[in-house]
Amino acid sequence: MRWLAEMLGVDRAALKASWNEFEPVLESGRAPGPDPEITWLRAVTNASEADLARAEAGWDRDRREALLNPPPSSVATLTALRERGLKLGVLSNTHALELRAWPESPLAPLVDVVALSHEIGHCKPDREAYDHVLERLGVAARSATYVGDGSNNELAGARAAGFAQVVLAEQAAAAAAPGTLPRLRAQADVAVDSLPDVVTLVRARRAGGPFRG
Question: Domain limits at 90?
Fold first, then answer.
């Protein structure tokens, strides 16, 4: 919210507090209208239509760059997992404005199922969110592995949903909130430093050997 508050010249703390109330409604798909993010901004700020257009473009551009230019290691990891015959799904708490560029992302053709909270009407850690992506993949939870950075209490949710293995990819949490790592590690069966280590984990499991994360 910092960039948005600075762009619109509004109080950052007040904007963040309003966003924290609105975000669960938005991400669960319950916010009305075709452009709910901008409708919210219009309601909570005195921004002009020109400023709102700039905010929308900035919001889209930030996520677009991340989606169109993901880390090469992420592309390599998904490619390696697909080559091993694994079905891959994405489950994300998000909203439409963040995902406009997804169809153009090099990640898109590497996954079998994409379940976005604002489209499916359920957010992590709700059981229905996990059940939705598993059903679309045609995979039972007892045969699946969940990999995440621990946001949105997703690891505890995956464990409650019955996943055979819950994996914490620590890199994002270590950078953003290192103090959360002990709690997140306790929610996972195994922790890896980053996403590429998941390939090593799969190799170890298939070989019947140990993996040290």
Answer: 71-207
- Below-70 pLDDT ranges, the chain: 206-213
140/163 Cα distance (integer angstroms): 8
Q: How far apart are CA 18 and CA 116, in angstroms?
A: 22
Sign of the CA dihedral running 60, 157, 127, 146 = positive
The sign of the dihedral angle between the CA atoms of 113, 81, 157, 31 is: negative
Q: Give tens-digit pLDDT for 114-136.
A: 999 999 999 999 999 999 999 99
- Cβ(134)–Cβ(144) under 8 Å? yes
Task: Residue 171: give its domain's CATH number.
Answer: 3.40.50.1000
Sign of CA dihedral 74, 76, 82, 86: negative
Domains: count for the chain: 2
Q: Which two tokens stand for residue 192?
A: 């890896």
Q: Answer yes or no: is 213 within a domain.
A: no
- DSSP codes joined into one string, 102-142: GGGSTTGGG-SEEEEHHHHT--TTSHHHHHHHHHHHT--GG
